[in-house]
Amino acid sequence: MKILTIILEKKYIPLANYFSSATNAKIKLSFNEIEQIMGQQLPNAAYLNRSWWKKTKAPAKHFHAWMDAGYFVSEVETNRHVVFERIDASKGSHANNGKGDEDILLIRNAEHGDARSLAALMKTVEAESDFMLYGKDERIQSTQKVRKQIIEWRQSGHSTIFIAILNGEHVGFLTVVGNAAKRAAHRAEICIGVQADARRKGIATKLLQKGEEWAASKNISRLELTVVENDKPGRKLFEKAGYVSEGIRQDSMVINGKYYDEIYMAKFLD
């Protein structure tokens, strides 16, 4: 990841990380997508003045989020979208391989400003999956409830939630829920969800990797999960990532009136 040449305000760091991962010659983002990347709202000046996006001199610093990654703002449609282009277009993906734009994936810790989008994402994932704990429209996840959970987990130091942002849209999440008890402080339970149209892009694998890195930094050495026995894609994902079966929870889920077993799985981190 590119090292920033100047200290940015904290809220623009995710945006800088997003652009540092990009290779596209041109990137068009709506204001909403930019705020989803940041996890916070843009200042009023960004909505009211095109000049805010065109600034490239001190005392402003926000422009370093894209300029340090080699992009400049070529077009601004107030309150609608911003177009960023590579300063050296020859370095873009169009010029290199002719395959068109590449997906841009950013995974970061959830911020309280993500609450509304995260609640909607969880609702979508649960509606699309046959194997989540909650079914379609079964759980009411209010923005306020999700925001409170994000803040509480952040403050606890042993739990967190990661969001996967693909091309400016929230498409996946990973929760890591640890323990306050000293005897269980070395272990945490994980849960992962990726919406259907973003699957088979390696997002779940990268979410797991991010979660494991975070857990290791918190001295958590054991990660646990359960997966429905008939969830073959889920089992394959976890087995490939190094999780092993430790037992069966018999008839633990009732899906469409039928009982299913769950498999206990765990991974020990180095």
From TrEMBL:
Q: Tell me where on the tree of life, at the top rank, the source sits.
A: Bacteria
Pfam families in the record: Acetyltransf_1, DUF7662
Q: What class of enzyme is it?
A: transferase
UniProt keyword Disulfide bond present? no
Show the InterPro entries listed in the entry: Acyl_CoA_acyltransferase, DUF7662, GNAT_dom
Cite the N-acetyltransferase domain residue spans from the record. 105-270
Q: Name one GO molecular function term.
A: acyltransferase activity
EC number(s) recorded for this UniProt protein: 2.3.-.-
Q: Gene3D superfamilies of this UniProt entry?
A: 3.40.630.30
**Key word Hydrolase present in the record?**
no
- Which keywords belong to this entry? Acyltransferase, Transferase
What protein name is recorded for this chain? GNAT family N-acetyltransferase
